Amino acid sequence: MQPLPRLAALAAFCLAALPAAFSAAAADGPRERLSFNADWRFHKGEPAAGKADDGAFNDAAWRKLDLPHDWGIEGPFKQEYAGETGKLPWWGVGWYRKHFTLPADDAGRRIYLDIDGAMSNATVFVNGREVGGWPYGYASWRVDLTPHVKAGGENVVAIRLDNPPDSSRWYPGGGIYRNVWLVKTAPVHVAHNGTYVTTPQVASDSALVNVQVTVDNDGADTDVQVATEIYALDKAGRRTGAAVARQDATAAAKVAAGKQVQLTQALAVPNPRLWSTEAPQRYVAVTTVTSKGRAVDQYETPFGIRTIAFDAQRGFLLNGKRVPIQGVCQHHDLGALGTAINVRALERQLEILREMGVNAIRTSHNPPAPELLDLADRMGILIVDEAFDMWGEQKTPNDYHRAFPAWHEKDLRTMVRRDRNHPSVIAWSIGNEIVEQGKPEGWKVAAHLAEIVRGEDRTRPTTAAYNHVSSGYNGFQNAIDLFGYNYKPHEYGKFHASAPHIPMYGSETASTVSSRGEYFFPVSDEKSKGLANFHVSSYDLSAPPWATAPDVEFKGQDDNPFVAGEFVWTGFDYLGEPTPYNADTTNVLNFTDPVQRAKMEKDLADLKKIAIPSRSSYFGIVDLAGFKKDRFWLYQARWRPELPMAHLLPHWNWPERVGQVTPVHLYTSGDEAELFLNGQSLGRKKRGPRDYRLRWDDVKYQPGTLKAVTYRNGKPWAEDTVRTAGAPAKLALSADRDKLQADGADLAFVSVTIADKDGVPVPRTHNRIRFSLTGPGEIVVTDNGDPNSFESFQSKEKNAFNGKVLAIVRTRAGAGGKLVLTATADGMQAAKVVLESTAAQGR
Ligand code: GAL
């Protein structure tokens, strides 16, 4: 190359570094993506008079609210509502309307409404005209408003949602429960989710990054070019330093009016910092689209550079290194906050799970909010992104199976296109426990769906969560790239022997059930035992018929090291599906064996005869309020073996059991432990090769102090002590964070623990706790994690459940200051926590 004269070189550099200037014409101005969440009007049901889709309809009397919104979570809980879906009213029709003005300058621009999720069967009207919609409540979709809106005038968008009854197996929520955006672009622009960044070659000195860009031309015939710059991002998502790679504009492609073009650029990133679970380095590809020499669009695609592989012998490999999948399945609700997406609430869930050692989430059984994937990218959490809980065969009479024939392809493509740039996503799941497994040639549907996914992305395997043993042998196993068994630790070896070339993992495991802080005696290892008073004992031995204690799955994994890991059902408790106090018949489908099935059907019929108060699940390792159940530490001991830790159970407040056998279990990352009761040794025990807990099963209860001293390789490792508490005397408050952002979305999760006069937590107390708040914010909800609490989440007071309650405080937008949350209870001193809310740049 001829050396350029100095000035010309500088000019060339500037041109490349600062993308070509945007046109002075407003229509070609830079893309905008504006939050469209504020100032909606909402009405539950059809309006009594008039047509809500009509532009002139008067909605002034409707409730004013901001999105995201879940109309079910305010309740009330009702006994007669199904426990399966949380005993909350999420079904029916709901309308949302928003009036908005577009500046005159928007004339000639493309105007899109992007809906991250609306539950469900949405129809969108603009200025009285039906303009689009989407049935699947978990999809993210776009409506083109351009032909229907007035620039320089007032517009009204009306959205009708309709949740049929019997359409979900868990609490789905209702409403526009995810974020909504107004996107404005020039006529020539990057298409919806129109970039696809892959890293086909990754080495320590260089990575090849392919950026494929789909450009829509909604204007007249023109030419289109794209240019790319890549920057490293810091943890907060800000660019660091200069571009690490740059590709100037490609040769112009001619694009006719109304057509689309796909342009690809290849860039080399020198010395790439790889995305991993320990160091989740991200980059951003900045795409500049030019047309007729003018920049018309700029679009950012965050991505990561890493390699993934599922190996049939070695499991999951990230950047060539085996990473055992330590995963949990998660439903989408955020406990007392319902399904309305809140980034901090999600982040807190992930933080708690990561403390346990979680490195992976399966988004059961649907595409998640996009914010979950952003968080996972940032935090280094692996994701199995799941599309469906059913295909053409129903699980409940009005579920998505009705839309499946017409919509499955769109829904699958939409999911993959939205999510394929996230380094966290490691596999695409086409379905969970699909009923078609039981049909001859049902595998053909699996093969069809997997091919659709591969058409959008071949850099990740397709997978499915199979619960029929036979799916390992009857064609289903060959339809996907990565085989997932639900609840089949005893089948891993057999499957592997028959298909040694197919990588596999436990797509859903354990389903152990328990209520935080409840223990029932005598303790039995039979999984059907441990039930009383609509609670389940917390010895972590109880599970429904298809499920197991955690230890059984651990053994299955350890005996079969080719298994890539597991996704436990579930990380957090969720609203709905309160098995075993659930008259839901769906899980009968887990049984192909006629004898087992008949027994299950009879049990369920018996259950249906009694009034069941349960509203939320018992499956969580963490309860609905975010309080850890005992097995949190069982998983932590396994998943964070280098963390010195020990956890004793049960609590030690059993005045009615003096002298009676009260087994003591210990979860520890140590390999040996000695147990002391009031200073007396009850014996030192060593963990055997497949022991995941240490047990002293014949301890006779005496009040006092129970202490475990653990060892690893003969050296002291960690200790835990449990003391008998006296009467409730004090409230101990602790906030997850005390520095908040005054953005109207940030939350503090304040936990209250009831303690005796010496500060020892009181385990079996249910005192009523009342909250009040001063300062610029509000108490949004309270919860205690009790699956049988019917008290409104919005109530500012609540009974403690086994000594604990949670209050969630939200800041006020634009108003910083000191927030003081006070908790009071009869006969106890009030306690306070002080939070600082500051107006700062967005989260
Ligand atoms: C599975 C199912 C999950 C949940 C779980 C409870 O069979 O895939 O959605 O129902 O059982 O154990």
TrEMBL record:
Domain Glycoside hydrolase family 2 catalytic: 315-467
Glycoside hydrolase family 2 immunoglobulin-like beta-sandwich domain mapped to chain residues: 196-306
Family: Belongs to the glycosyl hydrolase 2 family.
This protein's name: Beta-galactosidase
UniProt keyword Hydrolase, yes or no: yes
Classification via SUPFAM superfamilies: (Trans)glycosidases, beta-Galactosidase/glucuronidase domain, Galactose-binding domain-like, Invasin/intimin cell-adhesion fragments
Keyword terms: Glycosidase, Hydrolase, Signal
Record InterPro entries: Beta-gal/glucu_dom_sf (IPR036156), Beta-mannosidase-like_N2 (IPR054593), DUF4982 (IPR032311), Galactose-bd-like_sf (IPR008979), GalB-like (IPR048229), GH (IPR017853), GH2_Domain-Containing (IPR051913), Glyco_hydro2_dom5 (IPR040605)
A GO biological process held by the record: carbohydrate metabolic process
Domain Beta-mannosidase-like galactose-binding: 95-167
Signal sequence, start to end: 1-26
Residues annotated as domain DUF4982: 659-718
Keyword Hydrolase among UniProt keywords: yes
Molecular function GO terms recorded: hydrolase activity, hydrolyzing O-glycosyl compounds
A Pfam entry, by short name: DUF4982
Domain Glycoside hydrolase family, first and last residues per copy: 731-833
Domain of life of the native organism: Bacteria
Source organism: Pseudoduganella flava
